[in-house]
Amino acid sequence: MQNQDEFIEVIGARAHNLKNIDVTIPREKLVVITGLSGSGKSSLAFDTIYAEGQRRYIETFSAYARQFLGGLERPDVDKIDGLSPVIAIEQKTTSKSPRSTVGTITEIYDFLRLLFARAADAYSYNTGEKMVSYSDEQIQGLIKGTFNGKRINILAPVIRARKGHYAELFQQITKQGFVKVRVNGEIQDLVSGMKLDRYKTHDIEIVVDRMEISNNEDTDKRLAESIKTAMYHGENIMMVIEHGSNEVRYFSRTLMCPTTGISYPNPEPNNFSFNSPKGACDSCNGLGTINQINEKKIIPNPKLSIKAGGFAPLGEYKSSWIFKQLEIIGEKFGFTLNDAIETIPAEAMEMIMNGGNEKFSVKSKAAGVTKDYKIEFEGIANFIKNQYDESNSTSLKRWAKEFMDEIACPDCHGSRLKKEALYFKINEKNIADLSTMDISELIDWFQNLDGKLSEKQLTIATEILKEIKSRLQFLMDVGLNYLSLHRSSKSLSGGEAQRIRLATQIGSQLVGVLYILDEPSIGLHQRDNERLINSLENLRDIGNSVLVVEHDKDMIERADYVIDIGPKAGKFGGEIISIGTPTALLKENTITAQFMNGKMQIEVPKKRREGNGKTLKLTGATGNNLKNVSVEFPLGKLICVTGVSGSGKSTLINETLYPILNEYFFNAVKKPMPFKKIEGLEYIDKVIDIDQSPIGRTPRSNPATYTDVFSEIRSLYTQKPEAMIRGYKAGRFSFNVSGGRCETCEGSGVRTIEMSFLPDVYVECETCQGKRFNRETLEIRYKGKSISDVLNMTVDEAVPFFENIPKIYRKVKTIQDVGLGYITLGQQSTTLSGGEAQRIKLATELSKKDTGNTFYIMDEPTTGLHFEDIRVLMDVINKLVEKGNTVLIIEHNMDVIKLADYIIDIGPEGGKAGGELVAKGTPEEIIKNKKSYTAQFLKKELN
């Protein structure tokens, strides 16, 4: 038995496809688990080691707390020794809430709020002057210094620029014993029944005292009392006017503008939070964007008539109240529902869109009678807006959103905060300015800040600044220098989200923890890989064990210990085929070792494809950090878009090019980022985008339903004689509708046990034993297999099984071609690895008939793929290009980049220092470029 202090020992692991393996992992080392996609790496790291760590943590709770958690199932393993507390940093863990930003996840924004609440100077939004606040003693001193020997009026402002007659207010002031008020700059005596013009705006102040300032004790006492009274009635603000003059001096206990007298509440961290009602902009509730009705979406084709469905939300003519109202409006304005919308008069359109209440009469020419009509119409635009703002139904909100555009909030201009919060500044910057800076800019700003602060500010801010700087440095260390704190966490890629969590963990400086990471190098350029590996080594050096599931060559070479799982994927994997140091690995005969030592490799093509001579040309793209980029995409080639993380690749392709194409071919809604023009659209006939999002978030989603092959299989079962006799339709063989499914688990095969503060746990349904269907449905068989047996087949078994049914065969064959022969058709999407989900998506798109002029866009398709999987994937992609299609890949992986026919390199750096076209051409042309980082790494690959 080895010493528990030095090793984590896993004995008899059988989760998913693991074949009862024993493994000893050294502690306080950087250990990499590698192997083909689907070989069982995540099953060992997450479903065995992490799951057991989590279960043991829950065991420490009292029996009372555990009853709310239900039993966390033991992972299928005999025993694990030497396990320390486990923290998993996965790809799927960031929040999709629109309120979550990089600043809030890393907690840097919380420190910024504290810094601004305690050390910022406030400025007036009216005059830009520095706001002042005084204590009562200071006010007394200032009044005596300024007005010595003069007569003054002390006033308490009660009404500021508001309409009303204020009769009750004057009555109340009289009752409190005051005799004079100043109304709109004029001092008047209070008289019974006094009131003002209710339709004009007024300023009203109470005259608290009129006195001469002199240096004696009685004056001091009286002045102090008057200040107290004026502050009470004026809500911490008072005014002083010299007798016979109109020049006002304002004094305030809270922050106040010395000239105009506007005041801010004393700042608290909440005043700078866009997630708190105290700080959030009132127009957009702290989201930075609002939804606005887009008339073009309501009337996509103004040449259509109302009857023919010209108003998209209403659809074609039905005999309903709303169309009756439209007919009445037509009577009033002289049009019919058969007229084209563009011919309807503007006043009528105004009423149709924004509503109106009117009564009117129309004289019938034929009968000579007058008919009375009444219109009570809410207006189509108003109805949509109200449904979006007030409806409780998600589907109605989604429907309303189809006719709206998301635009930056006109009040806060996207900063998410109230106006006052933006006028608190440190070194001439407000909190929103800091949030929009890149991390690298921000860190420079903080480094130079100390010299710009006053003694008092420095004393208050020292500790806060230390925290902020160290956290920013950790983000720099993991290669995220191009992000800004304002960036919404929804827009982060899996790898970025994971590296942010990694930075947060390094920031917490825990010791003795086992960290498990899932491919942290996704979306990271080779150049930044070095930084990431250093961060992981840093975690290890302070006394933690780091376990990384990874395919990256550099990471494997730098590890202290490598575990290779294989030999193949799915049920042909799940064994440990080599274990030891990276140098020992190179001597083995595994697929990983052969790719590492160069025996196997992805061959560079002998010559690059010529393409079809046509190009798609995008001019003047300026979204996010792009600096007026104009770029040509040669068609009929494999194009790679490269560049360091944050250089603007996604902005150029996913946010500009794809929405343009999508809008052109499919009238899609998403607006492209700003660009000048696009040429060459006539040379392609459709666009297909394959991104990284998971294929389904519920156990109901599986490869068969996602690729739509399940519909064909269900139709096949309904044609069996037995099914026809019983009158079964396709719905009978669906586990998503009642009829044929097992009703205990509602067809999911598992029951969900909800956890209060942990992820839900799924247990097998005891009624159907996970088969999902009821007994009668399972009696229908095709070639001796029930529908449940088909769902449990691997794709490799399904290909020969369905070879005589072309529709089904084509789809399952494509799944097999992308290297997923080992997964079962009914495997829950939640259990697929990232790389597998990506390839199922790919297979779905590839099984559609391509036209030879299709433009495919793929965002890092190598996510989660081993060298061998990349080879299989690139074979499939090359076949597509051979047929004349264009495939554009955003990629960091050199094995893919070296196969490209044409490379577009964006950079040179990330964030504000990026966004330019650095290089373009074949790989052989690119490597001559001195400025491109990609070129330096590509050179090594090609040599």
Structure description:
With 943 residues, the protein is α/β, with parallel strands linked by helices. The chain is built from 33 helices and 34 strands. The strands form 10 sheets. A 6-stranded mixed β-sheet has the order 5-20-21-3-22-23, with helices on both faces. A 6-stranded antiparallel β-sheet has the order 9-8-10-7-11-12. Helix 23 runs antiparallel to helix 28. The radius of gyration is 35 Å and the shape is globular. The two termini are 48 Å apart. 40% of the residues are buried. The mean pLDDT is 90.
**Percent range for β-strand residues:** 15-25%
Extract low-pLDDT stretches. none
What radius of gyration results from the CA coordinates?
35 Å
Task: Outline the biggest β-sheet.
Answer: 6 strands, mixed
Residue-averaged pLDDT? 90
Helix content: 25-40%
Alpha-beta classification: alpha/beta
Beginning-to-end CA distance, first to last residue: 48 Å
Instruction: Categorize the overall geometry.
Output: globular
Q: Quickly count the helices.
A: 33
By oligomeric state, this entry counts as: single chain
Biggest sheet strand line-up: 5-20-21-3-22-23
**Strand element count:** 34
Which key terms come to mind for this protein?
single chain; 943 residues; 34 strands; globular; 20% strand; alpha/beta; 6-stranded antiparallel sheet
